[in-house]
Amino acid sequence: MHTKKKPRKNKKFRFMLLHQWLINNIKPCNAADVGGGKGLLAYLLDKDGWNVTVIDPEYQELPVKYTDLNKKKNKINIDEKVVRINKGFSYEMVNDYDLIIGLHAHGVNMNIIKACKEYGKSFVLFPCCVIDEPIEKKQDLNWIKSLEDYALSLDIHTEKIKLDMVGNNIGLIWIKKELRVES
Predict the structure, then answer these.
(1) Whole-structure pTM value
(2) What is the DSSP letter of 95?
(3) Which residues pair with 7 in a beta bridge?
(4) Which is higher by pLDDT, 11 or 87?
(5) Do residues 69 and 20 lie in contact, with contact meaning Cβ atoms separated by under 8 Å?
(6) In degrees rounded to 5, what are phi and psi of residue 150?
(7) What's the pLDDT tens digit per position in 67-89?
(8) Number of other CB atoms surrounding residue 166 within 10 Å
């Protein structure tokens, strides 16, 4: 008996999957990638006409190569860079951007939501765990639901998106109409 294998979900393509979703759904804009690490997402978005700054307290070099969603190997020229702020995220930083992206924004997801509300900015968050967040950690805490409830308490009606990747593949978005790609 021959069984059809399910397609494998992607883990190592997290940045590429989010990049694809962003360019398909949001117009190029001035964005911050909070906790952006090496800056691959910023690099990919910059290539598509965005203006992205990595905000991360830990400086990391841009990778020298990456594999895209078509499994094609790509090299990054050694002199290519992304704009970086090598500090932790602070509330007032939101004012400088149209969109805040948090794929690994440990400890600041709630601050991003609150700051975006105050400054009228959009966000895309993929919160993976409750690390250093100002919330009581409970045994059966559903982190996405907690953030959704927190946003709602600030009168922010988020939407959920799901990417085809292993791990925490549910994101919360709050995107201003003027940033959305028209379908």
Answers:
(1) 0.88
(2) G
(3) none
(4) 87
(5) yes
(6) -60, -45
(7) 988 889 999 999 999 999 999 99
(8) 12
